Structure formats: C-alpha cells, structure tokens
Amino acid sequence: MSEIKVNKISPRVACGTTTLGDSGDTFTIPTGVTITNSGTAAGFGSTGEVSWNTTVKTGDFTATSGSGFFINTAGGAVTVTLPSSPSAGNVVAVSDYNGSAGTNTITLARNGSNINGLASNLVISKANSAVQLVYVDATTGWQNVTTANPSDVSNPFVAATGGTITCCGNFKIHTFTGPGTFCVSSAGSPSGSTTVEYLVVAGGGSGSAKGPGDGGGGGGAGGFRFASPTLAPLTFPGKPLNGPSAITVTATSFPITVGGGGSGASSPGGPCAPAGNGANGSNSIFSSITSTGGGKGGYNPSRSSGTGSPGGSGGGGNAGNPSPVAGGSGNTPPVSPSQGNNGGGSIFPSSPNSQGGAGGGATAVGANGSPGVAAGGAGAGLPTGFGANGESCGSFRYYAGGGAGGRKEPANGSGGVGGGGDTNAAGTTNTGGGGGGGGANGSSAAGTNGGSGIVVIRYKYQ
Description:
By secondary structure, this protein is an all-beta fold.
C-alpha cells in the first residue's frame, strides 16, 4: 500500500477542478477523523452533514461532532453530553431507537453551550423523535435544524409511571394501594399539563374493645386530602373539601406512603381490664401532602375515662361515667381545607343501652352515643374518573367514613359511608374507614381494625 503525505492538494490551474480517484472507487475515512469545513464552502464535509453510528446506545455517553446516534432508553433514561468547546459547523444528531423516549427520556446536556439560544438542556420525551443540532455561535449555541420545533419532540403533557394506571377521558390515573414510587419522566408544559391532582387518604383508627359493661368508641376515619381543579365545578354525592391547587411536578421520583389501619385490641376480659384502645391509623404521604391517621376509639377500663383520640378524624368516646365522654378532635394537626371531623361523644344513661360515640368522617362528625346507637361520620364521594379503584368509569366511590359506636344492647350502629365499620366490624381496606367500636350484650368484645388508606394521582396526559 502506497502512502502520500501532503499538507494541501490544489488544482494545477487556478480555480480549476481536482478529481479524487475514478468512478467506482471507495475512499475510507478512519474512525476518529474529523472533517471540518472552512468558511462557507459546501460539499464534502459541509455544514450540517452527519454520519449515523448504527451501534445502538443504551447508556450515557459524550457525542462526537459529525455523528448521529440511535438511542434505546428501554432500560432507563439516557443523557447525551454534547461536545465541549464546539466550533461553528459542528453537528450532532440523535434518534429514539424504539419509541422508548416517551417513557424514559433522552437528555441532550449542553455542556456549557446554549441550545437554541437557551442555557438549558434539551429533553426528548416524545416517542420516536429525532433531532439534529448544528453549532452556530456562542449566542445561539447548538441550533435545532430539523423540520420540527423543539416543542414537537418534547411531550407537552405530564408523563409518569407507578402504581396501577387507568385512563378516563383525557386523564390518566395512578392508584397506589400500598407503598410505591410515582416517577415523572416529563414535567409537561403550559400548552399541555404541568400539574397533578391528588387524593391522599390515611389509615383509619381502630374501634375500641368493649368490656362487659359499656360499648366502645368507633375509630375515626383517616385524614382525607384532595385537590382537583378539573372536578371542582362538578356536583356529586358527598363532595369533599377541595384543596386550593394541584401540585406542580418536576421530572423526578416521588415516594408514596400508604398508611395502614390501626389494629384493634383483643377482648379485654374483666370490667376494668386495661389496653382496650387499639391504635391510631398511620399517615399517607405524597409530595408535600400528608394525611394523618384516624384517631382510635375511646376505651375506659374503669368508667372514669375513655375519650376518643385525635387524628385526621377523631375517634368516638367510650360509653361510661361520668357523662359526657368526649370524642377525639378531627383535623389534627390542622390543615386547610380540613382533613376530617370530630368523633362523637357519649352519655351514660340510666337505661341499660350504653352506646359508645362514633368516629368522625371526611364530611361529617361522628354521632353521639346513648341512648341510641351511634352512626359513623360520612365519608366523601368521588367520581371513579378520579381513581377507579376497580369500579367502572362514571360511577362513584367513597372514602374516609367513621366507624360506628359500640353498644351494650340491643342493636349495632352503622359505619359512615366510605368504608367505616359497623359495630364489631373493621373498616374497609384502602378506604381509610374507621373500625367499628366493640359491642356485646353483657360481655366483652374485641376492638376492630381500621381500613388502610390510599393515594391516587390524576393528570391530563393528552
């Protein structure tokens, strides 16, 4: 093989033509060689030309000028760092290899230079997109020269994964019935969506046990916090207090905590046996929103105390003496709008029908016990377009009902709509309902469990 080394090849005649090889010849340019263009000349090595590298990239890398790259983000987001200290005419191109950029983004990191005149990275979050950038100057930096505008390769709507995903109309709903992560891959734009609506319900408090004498207090519902500007104008049963605004998200991960229901205490046995209260529910958390667990129902081993505990909604007071026995306070700690209501108290009557107070619910206080049975405070109803949770789109689902008060005799109380337990019945799973107070005629009864909570996130996705 012959080798010729020169610094410049020029035609013999001024402004003439120099021919490289003959028709059918192939010239090989080794890997790593950079072809630059001087001034405004066009043709071989001209501005904007790119050679595509067919080795598919699956991880972060630094791009080289003059090359195009196919990128597969099925295994996770990929960052492409643009060349440092670029020269005018440098060109880089990228293409979504398999449509996975709609789930896991491709980020073009500017590496000190502007992109389209802005000091910010360019994020590709729309499936099957491609973009070609040419470096112009220090002011514009890397300029997008594809026929599409940059906004056409960035999803204008929020895009995310996590939980059980359903759709209703133009909205996507993520339902978490246990701990998880809400992963936002695209924060959207004002032309589409940039915020998410939420429902955060904590675990319900347990209903208290019952001694041989009086009925136990019902458990308070888990705190109920909700914000949905798109549903605010609608009228539906049990409409809850609506938060002032949805949450603006960024492309990051949001841990989700779903609170468990409080565990009910076992049957206390003797008339003055201790430890019949059970437990408060646990908190549920999404981003800056924390809903507090419901308060446990009151139990008094000696008829001298037995107030319900405070919480998202308060637990009911145990039936006892002296009267009245107070229910626990709701919306504790306080938030605006309120996350719940107070539990009902109880009165020790001369008749034998001693009834405990009921737990508070999302939209109503728990009823007072004695002389009649006490119903749990009503929960809040939402269209299943906001968290279908197994029900068809267009119907309603209720959350955060208070547990019924326990009774001595003769009848059971009803739990509040939204998962509140009847007397001797547990709160419903994933509603945040309070457990019903223990009840039995002349004997002791165990307390009941509160229902676990739920977190639902809703946003416009198309």
